[in-house]
Amino acid sequence: MDNYVITIARGFGSGGKQIGSQLAKELGIHCYENRILTLASELSGVDETRFMGVDERLRGKTLLDKMRGLPRAFAPKPEKKFISDDKLFEYQKEIILRLAKEESCVIIGKCADYILKDFDNVFSVYIEAPRAFCLKRIMDRMDISAEEATLAITSTDKYRSDYYKYYTGGNYWTNPVNYDITLNSERMGIENCVEMIKQGIKIKLGVESR
Q1: Residue 199 has pLDDT above 50, yes or no
Q2: DSSP state of 106
Q3: CB 3.0–4.6 Å: which of 62, 122, 128, 148 could bond 144 by disulfide?
Q4: Nearest-10 crossing angle of helices 131-142, 146-167
């Protein structure tokens, strides 16, 4: 196989981003998440900072005030449809399709599993963990209270779910049939999740890790 793609969807605080980054490093390939915004900017000719407001980031002044300790990127987004985000999504979709055709990589989020569902060179993963595990990770990583972390997890996961449902035409983000494998990062541990994914791509795609 000339190239392959691993897509990772993840619950907030589950360690999915860490797993994706570590996996890419061990495989010697690129990991794309926010870098897709930069590529979308280059493709469209639109300044990247203009995309930041409609990226899959959570925002909203009222709840942000309640979560004063949270970085701005994790503030909840007000309830809204995603109409204003459609153009950005189309740029991101085009980039994801190009990546799948041109290079081996890990793509985190961005509905990549759905966008690439008809590609034979894709291995899709969903990573989740119990709330208590995610809560502790967020509290430790962001140095915030349990109340703030709970709000961050609830609002972020709801936004990701709504985002996925909107752009996939009604599919459920957490439905295991959307993915080749689902992993519980608390039970498996971060390192073992990486190893399980490496085994998965070997079985499905014939990819041998280094």
Answers
A1: yes
A2: E
A3: 148
A4: 110
Whether 57 shows a pLDDT value over 70: the answer reads no
The band of 170, judged by pLDDT with boundaries at 50, 70 and 90, is very high
Cα dihedral value 42, 45, 51, 56, nearest 10: -50
Q: Which residue, 129, 135, 95, 133, is CA-closest to 115? A: 95
CB 198 within 8 A of CB 26: yes
Q: Extract the tokens encoding 20.
A: 């994706």
Helix axis angle, 16-27 to 190-205, nearest 10°: 60
- C-alpha distances out from residue 44 to 39, 41, 94, 113, 118, Å: 9, 5, 11, 23, 25
Q: Cβ of 199: how many Cβ atoms within 10 Å? A: 12
**Average pLDDT for 28-55:** 73
Question: What's residue 205's pLDDT?
Answer: 95
Q: What is the DSSP string of 161-202?
A: HHHHHHHTTS--TT-GGGSSEEEEHHHH-HHHHHHHHHHHHH
Q: Which residues pair with 8 in a beta bridge?
A: 108, 125
Q: Closest Cα partner for 163 from 77, 99, 96?
A: 77
Identity of the residue numbered 184 = N
| The pLDDT of residue 60 is above 50 | no
